[in-house]
Structures are given as structure tokens and as C-alpha cells.
Amino acid sequence: MARPIVFFCAGVLTLAGSRVAADDAVVFRDVAAERGLNFTHVSPFTPERHLHLTMGSGLAWLDYDGDGQQDLYLAQGCAWNGTRAPRPENPNDVLYRNREGQFQALSAIGIDNRAYAMGLAVGDYDNDGFADVFVSNFGPNVLFHNNGDGTFLEDPAFAHLKGNAYGASCTWFDAEPDGDLDLFVTNYAEIDDSNYRLCRETGPRGPVALACQPWKYPGAQDRFYANDGQGGFADQTNEAGFRLDEPRHGLGVVAGDLNGDGLTDLFVANDSDQNDLWLNRGQGRFEEMGLISGTAVNREGKREAGMGVAGADIDQDLRIDLFITHYQDETNTVYRNLGQGFFLDVTNEIGMAGPSRAKLGFGTVMRDFNADGFPDCMVANGHIHDLLGQLGRDVPFAQESQFFLNRNGRRFQDVSAASGDYFQKKVVGRGAAAADFDGDGRLDLAVSHCNGPVALLRNESRPRDGSFFRLRLIGRTSARDPIGAFVTVKTDRRRMGLPYEGSSSYLSGNERELEIAIDKTERIDSICVAWAGTDIECWPAPEPSGHWLNLVEGTGNSTRDR
Amino acid sequence: MKLHRQRIVIVAIVLGAFAVWGIVAFRGSSAPTLAHIQKLLSGPDRAAGFRALRKYLDDHPDDAQANYLAGTVLVKASPDLARTHLDKVPPESEHRAGAVRLLAAMALEQQDHASARSHLHELQRLAPDDPAVSLALVECHLLAGEHGQALEHAQRAAELNPARAQTYFLIAEILDELGRVPESVAPLKKAVELDPESFPARANLAYALHFAGDHEAALGGLEWCLQRQPNNADLLLIQAKIVRDAGDIPRAKRIVQTALRSRPQDVGCTLLLAEILLFEDNPREALALLEPVFRRQSDNHHLTTLLSRAAWLAGDAEKARHYQGLLVDQLPRRNE
Lengths: 562, 336
What we know:
A: mainly beta, B: mainly alpha, 74% helix
């Protein structure tokens, strides 16, 4: 008699056969020390386990001096002394300058942030051609204007908006759009320094201090700061429609045209609350459409503990899909963009459910690391509780990061085991961001660790046959730094959709430029750019100069068809 | 996921065991008069024994041994009176542990979980190495919905009697209730190791392994179960989920359709089939599949979410808004 499970065994074999081939692997090596990146995050836990100390800080890539090489801004934490007010003795954020792939910490350049830094938003808000930096803090936020001479100055125009809140991820984008970048800042929770709520659970050997769950604190209102283009900012949270009756616990944010109407929308990942999808209705007005869109809760109708978020065109249908990292025992969730503002949770079907439930995900990057045209996925993991063992729980504090290859837009394959030593190491991962720091055509990664040294993961995969170039967009009627634009690369055999993104991940920002690789025999037919709120413009068969291609708004052919 | 919810039928065991323990403990007593009374109570003239005991208690109302004996003999016939006598056994008495055992057992039988828990906690201090006490506490906490405390006592029971497979299964069930499914893999493996023929332990282990992302091990475990019950809809549902998560959507669909032929009303299978239909861009078919289920399970927010999705994607905005409104009402509060 045939065993009823014979077909079943075939399934086992299929699964076992899904290992990554050696020549297909994307391999990273941590080169932070040898490249001069000697930054260590400072966030010593208190005996009571104050919540904010567990959350870590972000990092962001930027070309601050315009030399074509990606520099790295690292947000710094500090010890807790009973107040979030900045103190001169606290450690400072550090900007590392990249010179031919070697990093050098810069000092006395006007960056002075002595609060517990959280999120970073890089953007040229005054259209002067130099990348400025906004830092959200557990404490007063700061806006550093890039003077263009290698120094920064805290912008006095933002002084009245610094606040004293608990800022998290933040991004620049052009809301109206009126040609200058505005700022959106998620806020996490309302915490009273003088009455900081603390939590503990009772274990077999007595009470154990644990950082409180987010809902132990009221959620905090996210903020929208409108740039008037004349050097001034105003808090227009209410006027733009962002006010919520019951504020949520915002942690992640990504900006992009999520419903294909040409305007830049926002997705906010909230911790244990439903997520927000803010659709841009024009003229700077936004409407929250999370539930209708299908992104507020997962397929089971459950709110998840959102941490980081990435937006990328996973399946090359020219729409931005969303990937959100979540808490242990939840999946990291993929929402496929179906167009017109509708999304579908496809986490299980594309292979992201199983690998994520046993991890607590924070930072995430979705970019093309193996130059096949499909965005791959990196997730930085690490728990917030370090004492669960004392409660008899087998849940590690330090956890391995994960790397997934995108298999033709249909499925993600966990290839962490073949992606280098870093992905075998247990760390307390938080922020993560990608850049090709050494200009070799292979995207690298930086990962921040809570209370630990930063990792610089050089992509040392076997180079693919073919060529690459780095695409930079320069807006004219749009913002010069056109965050929210959408790029379509059409070759003789495929189309690739690439969002020109601001900050995303968890508290972090990837390099702005897009790295585009094509096969040896492949030919680019055209590149089209949907500028935020204006035209779609195409350049037929553009010729990169060396490895660079700059597309300037107004120099291509206007069209309605991407 | 509950394949087989094993109820802990502890009360009867506990009552019986505690009563026997009490009598045995009493036999060790050295009080000569009470020993005579006890002999009468266990002989043919029990009535004479009762009379003698009553008389003895009239003369010695605070005698711990006498009150304990009265409690043990009255526990079935007159629980209230038994409780009165047992309460009189003072903490310093050697019979206190026996008295508390009986008090806890009576409280459990009468479903007075607060009292039972209080007595059991006292008993745990008096008899810290007794796994039956820990298991009884598990029962109390589970009935009160206190899963965290139930887990602690279940883990203690496993420490005290590491050879009992059912205790590990119980730990896994509690972890499941707490939403900590990946952590249930270890106790389920232990349960299977101790009792390799346990169908529920193997099936739940397969589910937990799948949940934790170890599809290969999950399929291996399911193979054993499906050999024994090839048409079990629960098993087929797990198999379909594993196959779906492994990327073979058409085969997952076939498996769940087979499961539905075996159990047409199964909500879990229906939801999975609807998810597959939505993924395949068949929202109208998904809607038609789900709406009859909604008439039976209108408070299931997984179902309501899928209905809302299916309606939006099918272009039925009015219906979508209806289900979405219900979903908003069904979403648990953030601190639940």
C-alpha cells in the first residue's frame, strides 16, 4: 500500500534544495575597524531598565561635502541621569567622512547634539545643493544646516520647534509640493522624566526589571513641520490633517507615492497600534487611510508592534510595496501594493513569515544587493529585554541579523547562513542603512547596535558580469533633493521601479543615490522620473559619465506614461 | 492552534490523593484516645466512632488532631462542617499540611478557585516538592485566565517530576495561549521524547516548528501524524500552511480543499483558502466563500479583516465599509 505521505516527502526535498548556491551568495564582511569606523553607541541600561535606553539610535548615509563619496552620520545615546535635557558631558553624535573608503571622525564642524539621539533625516531643505541633517531626540530635536564649507550650524529658524518630546524616525519630503522639503517626525510616547513609569515582572527568583510595554505610556502626536521656502518652518500638524484623537506610538516612517497619484504619501509604522497610511490629497492636506488600504493591521486583523519600515518595488510592477519589522512572535509583514491605495498582506506567500517570528526586528533595508534588479532585504534584529532569562524565558537579547535574496519578485529566500560571519553573530541590532561606500558597484551596509560598536558590512560578493551606474536626481521646480520621486528604468528586457527615498528603516537613512546594474548584454532604453506632484519626464538611452548619471529636471521629455 | 485541548482532570485525583494522605498521616498519631476513635470509625460501628469523636471535640475543641480527623471523615458527607474543623488545625500543627490539602481539594471541587489557590499556595510552602500541588495551582490559574502564573507552576511541576510527558504538553499549551509559540517547541520535543506515541504532542510540535520557521522539521513531524490520520483536517490545515509558506501556492490550495471536503465547516481551512484566493487575485470568490462563515462567526476579526479586504478588492465599497466598521469595533484595545 502506498504511504499517503509520499508526496509529502517530495516537499521536504524541495525545501532542502532551496539552499543558496555559492556563486549566487551575497557575502558581507564587517570592516568597521579596518576602515576607521570606531564608533560605539552609548546606552548603558539602568537597573530599572528605563525604556528609551533599550531603543538605540539611528545612522544615515549622506554625501555631506559633495565629493561623490558617502559619509556616515551616527546618532549617539547617553546615560540616563533623570532628565532628557542635553548635558555638555554627554557624548556627541559623530559624522564620519569617507575618503576613498576610509573613514575619519570629524570634530569641531558644528555638530553638537548632547541629548539621546534617535532618528535622522537627511535632506537639502534649502535647495543649496548640500545635504542637511535633522536629528530627532529623546529631548529637544535639532536641525543642522550644512554650510557647504565642511561645517554645520544649528538652524535658528527651527529653534522654536525643537520641543522636548520622544522623537523617533523622521523624513524629509515635499508635501504640497511646492519645491522645498518639509519634515515629518514620528513621536513615540509621552514620558514624564520626573515620573518615569517603570515595570517589572516576578520571576522564580524574585522581581525582574523590564522596559515597559509601549501602551504603558500614552502615545505621542507625530509632527509635520512645513518649510515656507523662505528659511522658516511652522508646525502645521493640525492644518495638514495629521492630528489624531488618540495619538499612537510612532517608530518608523517612509515617504513615497503609495497610491500612484504623483503626490508623496507617508506610511508610519506604530508600535502596538494600528499603522497610519497618510495619503496626500494635494495642497498639503493628508488623510489617514490605514484601514481602508489594508496596512493598518495584518491579515489576521491584529495590530503589530511596528519598528522599522522599508518601501521598495518588490515585484517590479512599478508600485512601492511596504515591509515592516515587528516584535518577537509576530511576523515581519509585507504589504503588496495593488494600486490605487490598496494593499494586501502577502507575508506568508512570499516567504517572510517563518524566518521572522523568532526574532525582534528593527532596522531594515530593501535594496538590490546582488545587482539582479530586484530589491533584496536585510533586517537588523535584537530584543529590548536583556533579563528574560531570569523569568525562565528562552528568548535571547542579542540576535542574528538576517539577509534575504529576492527571487524574481516572487519570493524571499533567507540566505543569512551564507552571507558572512556578521550574520552568524548575535548582536543587538537597531538602525540599518545601505550605501556603496567604496564605489565598487556593490551596495554595502551600516548597522547600529544598542550600546555597542557600529558594523560596516562591505559587500564582497563575486561581481556580476555587466555594468553599473549611480543615478542622482536634481530637481528644479521640484525640490532640488527630490525625495518622493519615482524612477522607472526600462531596458530591452525588463522594467525596474525605484523610489527616490528619504529616511526609512529604523531611525536611519540609506544613501540617496540609486545604484543601477545591468547585464553585459542588456541595453537601457529609457529612464523616466515621476517628479513629486509634477510631470513624468523621460530620457531615452541616457549615457552615464563614468559610473555617474545625473538627471536634471526639465532636461528630458515630458510624458504621461512611465 | 489547538489540535487537542487536553483538560487537566485534577480535582478528583487531588481529592482522592489528599484524603488517603490525610488518613495515613493520622494513623501515625500517638494520641491513644483518638486512636481508639479512629479504630471505631474504620470498623463496622462508624456511628459509635462519630459519637466518640463529637464527645472528644466537646471536651477538646481546639485539639488539632481531633479537628483534622473530623475534617477527613466529614469531607464527603458534610463539606461545610469538614471545612470548619480543618480551619481549626493551627499552622504550627503537624497536621496543617494535610488539612490544607483537603481544604484546597474541596475548594477545587466546588470551583472556588480563589480559595483553592490560597490553600494551594500555603500547601506549596508546606510541601514544596509535591508536583501534584503545582499542577493543581496550574488548574486554578488557568481557570482564572492567569496564564503567566500557570506557566510558572507548570514549569515547577516539570522540575519536580521530569518524567511526566503531559506536563510538558501542558507547558506548551500555556505558551501557545501566551502567544509564545516558538518557545513551545522545546517542551513539545520533550513531551514527544517521553511519549513517542503521543499524537497531540507530535501534531502540536509540527505546528510550533512551522510557526518558528523550521518547515523541514515540521513536515517530518507531520508525516508521522498523517500516516495515522491521513484525512485529519487539522493536520491538513497545518500541511497546507507549511506548503503555502514554502511557496507552493497551488499545492497548498489543493491540500486545504481536501481538508474542507473532510470538514466543510472548518473555519481555519476556510480562512486559509480565502487568503490563497486573495493572493491569486480572486476577491469575488474569496468573498463568496467567507460570507456564509460570517453568519456563524461574526466576532472573528481574522474573518472580518479578510471580508473587508475581499470586498474592497472586489470593488464593493459599501460592503467593505460595513466590514471595516465591524473590524474597528472588534480590534482589541491596545492594552489587551
